[in-house]
Amino acid sequence: MLKIDTEKCTGCKICEKVCPFGAIVVVDNIAQIQDNCTLCGACVNSCPVEALSIERKPVPKEELDKFSGIFIWGECEEKNERIVPKKVVRELLAQGRKLADRLDQDLTVVFLGDGKLTGLETLITYGADRIMRCQHKLLGNFTTDSFTNVISAVISKERPSVFLFGATPHGRELAPRVAARLHLGLTADCTGLEIDEKGELIQTRPAFGGNIMASIVSPYTRPQMATVRPNVFSFVEPDNSRKGEIQDFDVILSPSAIRTKVVAMERLSDEREVSIEDADIIVSAGKGCQKKENLKLIQELADALGGVTAGSRAIVELDWIPHTKQVGQSGLTVGPQLYIAVGISGAIQHLVGMSSAKTIIAINKDPDAPIFKVADLGIVGDAMDILPVLIRDLKK
Amino acid sequence: MIADRYNKISVNLRRSVAEKLVKMKILICVKQVPEITDVKINPETGTLIREGVDSILNPFCEYAVEMGLELERHYGDIETVAISMGPPQASSALIRCLEMGVDRATLLADMRFAGSDTWATAFTLAQAIRAMEGDFDLILVGKQAIDGDTAQVGPELSEILGIPQIMYAVSVELTGNKKKIRAKREIETGNEIMEIKLPGLVSLSKGPMIRSVSSFKEILDARKKELRVATASDLNIDENELGLGGSLTQVVKIFPPQVKKTGKLVDGSEPQGAAKKLIGFLRERKFV
Ligand SMILES: Cc1cc2nc3c(=O)[nH]c(=O)nc-3n(C[C@H](O)[C@H](O)[C@H](O)COP(=O)(O)OP(=O)(O)OC[C@H]3O[C@@H](n4cnc5c(N)ncnc54)[C@H](O)[C@@H]3O)c2cc1C
Ligand SMILES: Nc1ncnc2c1ncn2[C@@H]1O[C@H](COP(=O)(O)O)[C@@H](O)[C@H]1O
User: Fold this and answer.
1) Cβ atoms within 10 A of the Cβ of B287, count?
2) Which residue CA neighbors atom 47 of ligand 1 most closely?
3) Among A8, A25, A174, B34, whose Cα sits 20 to 30 Å from the Cα of A125?
4) B164-221 tens-digit pLDDT
5) Is B7 inside a domain boundary?
6) Domain ranges (residues) in chain A
7) Which atom of ligand 2 is found nearest the CA of B29?
8) Whole-complex ipTM
């Protein structure tokens, strides 16, 4: 329950402004809580004098069973000047559909935006039963503070049994904030999701750089929360006969809730090029390419195959490519149909970012290079000699 | 044990406002991790084989330490404190921090902390910070710890403490009379410069070049610095909020990953032949 320390409360009304449900009113310079408080916690952080606190008691099993519905965060990105759902949302929908059917519950996808959200209906064809729109002028750009407030409000009001986020950079900064605010268990970067015979969500994920797998449950809290690694689950073909509904969720947000300020932004990725996360064919370069000029060959090979280029962290550090093209633990996870690794040794930090590619080809002059352990075809040789011939023959 | 003589914990070390005005305090949360490339699983028992696995300071935490020290070198008048929760052996990770130049360190070591998930870890760290370092200005963490790779402890910690965060930073500077921090951070499409008011938390995804060995002088200096060990009793924390019992997630099974069948290795010493084989393979898989 939400507690107010009346000694500390100064009646400043900040909590009144940030409460997403209008559940706090300040009377006689002291905040008062109304019956419609959902314990979403938005006020606790905003209080400048720490007068608000929430005591969360463990929830008994019967209570947990009342939580129902599979929810997905519909993360969006800008593409060709339009705001569209990321590919991972379709992957989550396909996986979420299976969980929803198994539990006989609904599948809802939650979108946050500033009113420019269009074309969301198509997500019904990818498996959603319900699209929930949260629109507010302060939700045009992602901020951890505003998105945490709104998602926490949605969870507190809707009480879903499962809430999934893409394990994207934004997903991985948002989900733990929501989890900590609502005191929920959270599993990071899952690659497997299943419902067991008790109806619990079994969340499977790699640990120790992919050397072992762990299956994890959240037995005491609902919703069961997980971030899910992009490019692991495939999405389904759209089914135009599916029916669903669109619902609006009322959002109350005040500018004071947002504590981050973006001072400048620098775009490094080419807007016209497909991002490496979405690409079907990737030609990736490592330090074995020897000098920056040789990346010409990598680009030519990618062009010949209709793919995009990427690289290891070693060449990001050499400033040969921007970090937006880095594959691996401190870069991006990719899952293309075809990944060609040229002069990449295959350090574990690189492998975790690309081993879910369907087909892997590696060219390396060291027969013991670890990259060969995951390659479907390994060519032991000097890539700088092989590539020119390969490109010439491909163009024929 | 080195730490014993520091083992008297005062309830709250909140310093006077006057002193606070001149000296800024940066907390750096660090974790000791196994060198992951060596970790294997026993296929019969499903347990980790830890023998012969070296322990290191998590590389992303090392970036956080270097970043804290860089701020200290650049702006002066900054106290840097490393904090870690872990078994007694984890003191070696903190000694490394002291050798790198951190002013003092605290190890939260207690059997009762064992089995903590990210929530229990973040909560324990938060309670320790509240009890012992409540007047901090900035917390630096690594983007992720390479054992679990969860990247959750940072944001959970900042949420529990009620402070704003900047994730995935690669460089930082203090602005607004040291009342704000501005960080360049990596985002999917490029870079973003973001600013927050302090106190706040920043996670590091890359950092300045790390010197892998410490000098003899640094090692000697480190021995003179404070390395304190605190236990659960030193924190304002309920027994059942700790460790496995305080965790909200539970590991039910550990198993080895499916090994991918390795493909064939072909000799590519002759470029013509190599290109031919490669194109044949691409045709077979219908890529061309
Ligand atoms: C905390 C942390 C996070 C990291 N995150 C990432 C990450 O996200 N992504 C990542 O990639 N790395 C990451 N790394 C770095 C990783 O450990 C490796 O250092 C890096 O991947 C090596 O890059 P490389 O394979 O290009 O270079 P190298 O390891 O130098 O390998 C070059 C390879 O090229 C081969 N070669 C040389 N010449 C030729 C030639 N003419 N023809 C063919 N082959 C040739 C060599 O045999 C060698 O195998 C991380 C490291 C740390 C500590
Ligand atoms: N036991 C711990 N003690 C101190 N800091 C930690 C601990 N676990 C995680 N952290 C911090 O949180 C970051 C992210 O860790 P993780 O969420 O485990 O991937 C690490 O880089 C550390 O800065």
Assistant:
1) 18
2) A366
3) A174
4) 999 999 999 999 999 999 999 999 889 999 999 999 999 999 876 666 678 889 899 9
5) no
6) 2-54, 61-253, 281-395
7) 5
8) 0.91
